Amino acid sequence: MTAHVSAASTRIASDYSALFSPYDLHGLHLANRMVMAPMTRSRALAGNVPNPLAEIYYVQRAGAGLIVTEATQVSPQGVGYIRTPGIHSPEQVAAWKKVTNAVHRAGGKIYLQLWHVGRISHPDFHGGALPVAPSAIAAEGTVFTEQGPKAMVAPRALELSEIPGIVAQFRKAAENAKAAGFHGVELHGANGYLLDQFLRDGSNRRTDAYGGSVQNRARFPLEVAEAVIGVWGKERVGYRISPTGAFNSMSDSDPRATFSHFTAELDRLGIGYLHVTDPVNAENRLAPTLRKTFKGPLIVNGGYDAASANAAIAAGEADLVAFGVPFLANPDLPARYRTGAPLNAADSATFYAGEDKGYTDYPALA
Question: Which of 28, 35, 113, 203 is 20 to 30 Å from the Cα of 274, by its Cα?
Fold first, then answer.
């Protein structure tokens, strides 16, 4: 099935000339400024191995300047959702290699997002053991397990001696991502997962070298970033944050100070890009502030459409813009924005279930 474009709906591509201009991401040529945002789709097979359907799914969206994959666990300890892929076993690496080969053949550029959920998990995923976190503070809400939704539990605070092991998990996952053929990796430091849990004081009440001051709270995420840079080089590592987000019971007493310090440190490391989830129309936006503390390439995300994305790039507020649900429902989103074609409606019932339905069956333009 294909969608048809009416003459009345067409738009001249030059209207969005900034959005469709090419971009040099430290030597990686991006055909346009549109990024496919990372989106959990819960289609992985047994052993958290990427589904063969993922090859089709990502190839369909290879028209993005850059694809960032769904969040991918760095270890079994990092699992918190059913049917989400990992990058810690040979089978997972082999399956991802098929995805990257297919995307490369289609001319696409693809990064893998590295993920450890921390406290956003359940003992069911860990043989009865508690999830780990900086502090033993439970998040509110439920976790979807194989037995259905269950209430989140208070996690176990990581011992000081365990933290280097978590850093090593990220390092090994970065090595596996390189073996799988990705162009680079993005660290998932947003949305209340482990890296975010250490950085924000609403979830980190430690009194050792990894808690208290913003310098201490930033220590673990920066150690992870440095370890992954050691594998990939600084130019091929991105970092995603959600400085004003409250998802997964997250909060911070002074987000402007926390994230200004942290992004300045990422800038000092020379990391390849900063990816900021910050709603475009929110009153408490921090992306403009962080544009000043982080001098490298900036990706913004949070409710943008073609017009607002083009305006942000043209004004120098960002270098690239990430789109989530619009890319989920419109595999050929760049073509639709170029021509002003109507967009497919997203089917939220199939966001996290449905196999090919709502995953690889959204129609493309004729």
Answer: 203
Chain position carrying tokens 């040529």: 29
Q: Provide the β-strand partners of residue 341.
A: none
Query: What does the H/E/C string look like for 1-47?
Result: CEECCCHHHCCCHHHHCCCCCCEEECCEEECCCEEECCCCCCCCEHH
Instruction: Identify which of 78, 7, 8, 87 has the alpha carbon closest to the alpha carbon of residue 44.
Output: 87
* d(C-alpha 76, C-alpha 335), whole Å: 38
pLDDT, one tens digit per residue, over 129-147 is: 999 999 999 999 999 999 9
Give CA–CA dist 191/249, Å, rounded: 9
Q: How far apart are CA 142 and CA 261, in angstroms?
A: 32
Q: Kindly report the backbone phi and psi dihedral angles of residue 322, in degrees, each rounded to the nearest multiple of 5, phi listed first.
A: -100, 140
- Residues 200-225 have pLDDT tens digits of 999 999 999 999 999 999 999 999 99
CA–chain centroid gap for 149, Å, is: 24
For residue 113, the cross-strand partners are 71, 186
For 134, 138, 199, 243, 254, the CA distances from 257, given in Å and listed in that order, are 20, 25, 11, 10, 6
Please measure the distance between the N-terminal and C-terminal CA atoms of the chain and give it in whole angstroms: 9
Which of the residues 16, 58, 111, 193 is marked catalytic?
Answer: 193
The predicted model scores a pTM of 0.96
Active site residue 193: yes
